[in-house]
Design brief:
Layout: E1 3-10, H1 26-30, H2 38-54, E2 59-62, H3 70-75, H4 82-92, H5 94-100, E3 112-115, E4 125-129, H6 136-139, H7 142-152, E5 159-161, E6 179-182, E7 191-196, H8 217-226, E8 234-238, H9 241-245, E9 255-258, E10 261-265, H10 272-283, E11 289-293, H11 300-306, E12 312-315, E13 321-326, H12 327-331, H13 333-342, E14 349-355, H14 358-361, E15 371-377, H15 378-383, H16 392-405, H17 418-434, H18 442-445
Parallel strand pairs: 1-2, 4-5, 7-8, 10-11, 13-14
Antiparallel strand pairs: 1-15, 3-4, 6-7, 9-10, 12-13
Length: 446
C-alpha cells in the first residue's frame, strides 16, 4: 500500500479584499483598505497548486465560502431585498458588512484538523472543522466548511466527520494551523502535536497580554478525544506568549513540521526541551530532526514579516524535503541567507522553491496558510471525490473560470455592490459543478 500527503489548497474567493479584520495579524492590519485583485489572488493560488503538482505531489482543491454572507446579515437584523440589505449594512454597520464579505476561507490551514487513519482508533481519517471563534468573520465558516469536506471525503468506510467544537472561546479552535504530525512515513502511526496559546479554564497559566491566543489547550484535547487518538501519541505544546504578542497569531507562523522533521524558531515554545524529550520518547525508534532557527540569525519580527515558517515543507518523490517559500523570504537578506545555508546542513531539507503569493501575504497568509494537509493511503485517495484533485485539465478549467467571474480590482467600498453578490453566486454555482460538490452553499439550499 502506498501513502501520500495530499495538499488541499483553498481557492481564493471572488470577494478577496483588504478590510484589516484580523487583530493580531500584523500583515492584515498594515494593508487595511488597500485595493485588492481577486483575479490575481486566485491565479497566484492556482499557480502554487500547479507548481506542487508538477513537483510530483498530489494536490487537491477546496472551494471558497459564499460571500457576502447574506444569511448572517439577515440574522443580524438587516431586511429587505438583497440590494437593500447590502445598502443598509454599508450605511449602518460597514464593519459588519466587511466581515460578512471576507474571503478568509482561502486560508484552509484553518479549515479543520485532520488525523490520518494510521493514528485513529477506528482506522479512518477523522475531520473536525475549526470553529474559529476568535474572529467574527472566520466564525461564519465552519458549517459550510463541514459540508464541503463531506462532499470531498464522502465515503464513510474511510472518512469520519465531526461537528466543529462549541462556539465559545473556551474551546477556540483554529484547525491545522496549530497542529502538525511527526512520523517516519506518512502511512505509519505518528505523534500528533497540538500547539495552544492559553488554558481557558486556568486563569493563572501563562498567556499573551497584547494579542489574543486563538487556540486553547481544552480545544486541542477535545479534538484528540474526538479523533480517537492514543495519549501515548499526542503531545501538547504551549506557544510562547511573547511571540503571540509579536504577531505570531498561529503556530504555523513560527514552526512547521513534515514527517520526521520539525522546523521551528528558537523562541517558538514554552518549556521547549522538556516537550522535545516527550516527542522523542513517544516517537520511538527512528531518526527525528529538530531544526532550530536561532534568533540571532532570523529575528521573530523578520520571521513574521517574511513568513519563513508559514512555508510548506514537503517530501518530493525523490525522498528529499523541500521548502515552498513566499518570495518575501527571497527578498529578505537574512532569511535568504539562512535558507541558502540550511540546504547545506545535515537535515532532510535540500531544496527551496520560491512562490509568488503576494495577494495572500498582504492579508497575512503565506503558502502554508493556503493548504490543508491530508495524509492518505492509496485506497483512501481512490475514495476522494476525483473532481477535486488537480490535474492539468482542472488547472486550465479553473483558470478559465477565474477569468470569467473574478474582478481585476476590488475596493472595500465595492463590497456593497449587489452586482458583486450576483457575480459571486454565479461563480460558486458553476464551481460546485466543476468540482462535483452538489449543493453546499446557503443560496443553493434555499
Amino acid at each position: 500500500m502506498k501513502h501520500f500527503e495530499v495538499n488541499f489548497d483553498g481557492l481564493v474567493g471572488p470577494t478577496h479584499n483588504y478590510a484589516g479584520l484580523s487583530f493580531g495579524n500584523v500583515a492584515s492590519l498594515s494593508n487595511a483598505a488597500s485595493a485588492s485583485s481577486p483575479r490575481q489572488a486566485a491565479k497566484q493560488g492556482l499557480m502554487k497548486m500547479k507548481a506542487l503538482h508538477d513537483l510530483g505531489l498530489k494536490q487537491g482543491v477546496l472551494a471558497p465560502q459564499e460571500r457576502p454572507d447574506m444569511a448572517t446579515l439577515r440574522r443580524l437584523g438587516f431586511s429587505g431585498t438583497d440590494a437593500q440589505v447590502l445598502a443598509k449594512a454599508a450605511k449602518e454597520a460597514p464593519a459588519i458588512l466587511a466581515a460578512c464579505c471576507s474571503a478568509s476561507s482561502m486560508w484552509t490551514a484553518n479549515a479543520a484538523t485532520i488525523s490520518p487513519s494510521a493514528d485513529t482508533s477506528d482506522g479512518r481519517v477523522h475531520f473536525t472543522p475549526a470553529n474559529l471563534t476568535n474572529k467574527f468573520h472566520r466564525s461564519l465558516e465552519p458549517a459550510v466548511t463541514g459540508r464541503i469536506l463531506q462532499a470531498i471525503f464522502n465515503d464513510d468506510r474511510h472518512f469520519q466527520h465531526h461537528k466543529h467544537l462549541p462556539d465559545n472561546d473556551h474551546f477556540g479552535d483554529e484547525g491545522a494551523a496549530n497542529h502538525t504530525r511527526l512520523c517516519s512515513h506518512y502511512g505509519h502511526a505518528g505523534v500528533e502535536l497540538f500547539v495552544y496559546g492559553r488554558e481557558a479554564f486556568n486563569a493563572a497559566a501563562p498567556a499573551p497580554k497584547k494579542y489574543p491566543a486563538r487556540q486553547t489547550l481544552e480545544a486541542s484535547q477535545a479534538i484528540a478525544r474526538l479523533h480517537g487518538l492514543d495519549d501515548d501519541t499526542v503531545v501538547y505544546l504551549q506557544q510562547n506568549p511573547d511571540v503571540i504578542d509579536a504577531g505570531v497569531f498561529h503556530n504555523d507562523v513560527i514552526s512547521v513540521g513534515n514527517q520526521n522533521l520539525l522546523f521551528y524558531h528558537q523562541d517558538a515554545f514554552v518549556d521547549t526541551q522538556a516537550k522535545f524529550a516527550e516527542i522523542r520518547r513517544k516517537f520511538g525508534d527512528g531518526e527525528l530532526h529538530f531544526v532550530e532557527v536561532p534568533r540571532d540569525q532570523v529575528s521573530v519580527a523578520e520571521a513574521v514579516k517574511t513568513y519563513l515558517f508559514n512555508t510548506q515543507v514537503v517530501t518530493l518523490p525523490s525522498g528529499i524535503m523541500a521548502i515552498i517559500a513566499p518570495t518575501e523570504c527571497e527578498e529578505s537578506d537574512a532569511v535568504r541567507t539562512y535558507l541558502a545555508s540550511l540546504v547545506e546542513q545535515d537535515s532532510p531539507i535540500k531544496e527551496v522553491h520560491y512562490m509568488d503569493v503576494k495577494q495572500s501575504m498582504r492579508n497575512g497568509g503565506g503558502p502554508a496558510c493556503l493548504r490543508l494537509r491530508v495524509a492518505l493511503n492509496d485506497e483512501e485517495v481512490a475514495a476522494v471525490n476525483p473532481s477535486c484533485l488537480l490535474d492539468d485539465a482542472l488547472f486550465n478549467r479553473l483558470n478559465t473560470w477565474v477569468d470569467k467571474h473574478y474582478r481585476e480590482e476590488l475596493h472595500v467600498a465595492d463590497l456593497a455592490d449587489p452586482a458583486l453578490l450576483m457575480e459571486s453566486r454565479d461563480a460558486l454555482d458553476e464551481l460546485t459543478q466543476i468540482l462535483g460538490l452538489g449543493s453546499v452553499y446557503p443560496f443553493q439550499l434555499d
